[in-house]
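Service request form, structural biology core

Requester: graduate student, group of Dr. S.
Request type: structure prediction, single chain
Budget code: on file
Notes: please return the result as structure tokens.

Sequence provided:
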Amino acid sequence: MDIKQVNNLQKAINCINKYAELIDEENINIMEVCGTHTNSIAKYGINSVISNKINLLSGPGCPVCVTNEDYIDEAVYLAFKDITIVTFGDLVKVWGNNCSLAIAKYQGRDIRIIYSISEVVNIAKEIYPKEVVFLAVGFETTAPSIAAIIKKVYEEKIQNLSFLTSIKIMPPILHKILNSKHKKIHGIICPGNVAVIRGGDDFKFIYQKYKIPAVICGFEGEEILASIYFLVRDIYKKGKDKSQIGFENLYRKWASPHGNKLAQKLIKDVFNIEDVVWRGIGNVENSALIINDKYSTIDATKKFDLQECFNDKFYRKQYLVKDQFSNEHKACTNDYKACKCKDVLLGNIYPFQCGLFRRVCKPEKPFGPCMVSGEGACAVYYKYHREV
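Core staff response, request fulfilled:
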């Protein structure tokens, strides 16, 4: 970084702090709803260079963190039915209501961690005819690649591979947050990666409906500072009854107004939109991408009759773990219930305001999903904020 860039950054920081002092609010709450933004803000120490009046709050932008407990239970159930479970690493440590995939793996169940979704087809072909279920978790960002693999499996008639999905879409949860009477959000940093798929215009509703300024930006420090500058300037203008811009796409190089049409076509071909429960938040209408009827033979929920055969009583009887791990988990049940991931996900508290944070909840022994995932706010704070 040359001296000109340093000077420009310092100028941006000075402008942010100047506007912050002129705003007639004790606290200026700006929420980001992308785990990568959460990581970048901490990595570049942005909180340490901007005004203390500005609260950068982490919203529900980590897909693993908002995956409901029942989904984990279903995955564990399938593992104990001698089905090979394929997943990305973060999900393995997340607890459901009674167990985790890590415990199932310890007990000898076939849980395989992959680093690219394309690996799942090779695994299914290698161990045919044994059944394989891929845990498809994510937001709009990963939905196109999941849809493409589902189409491939369907077209190649791979009989032993199916998908257990937990794919969520971003606008509905933003509506839920912004409709809350208990939360005062002054500005939103929108997820640039989701905007690449959906299109920047899909986030204009934040200002058009709620009169809250919003900005789409990338993930480098200077990009995030530029977005904060845009927001605090607009918040200041609102307080002075001046004309606001309201919405800005600072990620236009990658996120066009109408998004990636090919990716949208893939999503529309494979998925329907339905309601779903977000972990710690509850039911959010029209916020899930569910495999449609055309590809129902590849939907693990339907293929294994999970809605019919899976119930809590049966699960507890058959699959409640009775080894040292479950005993350890039982011994700290009160701590587990004291986990404040819900409040962290909604931006109600910072991770260090949870009584478990760093005291007993750590990446090597996480109590909640926000500490499990590398994009979870608790894991990010643990890594970068050593003073708390």
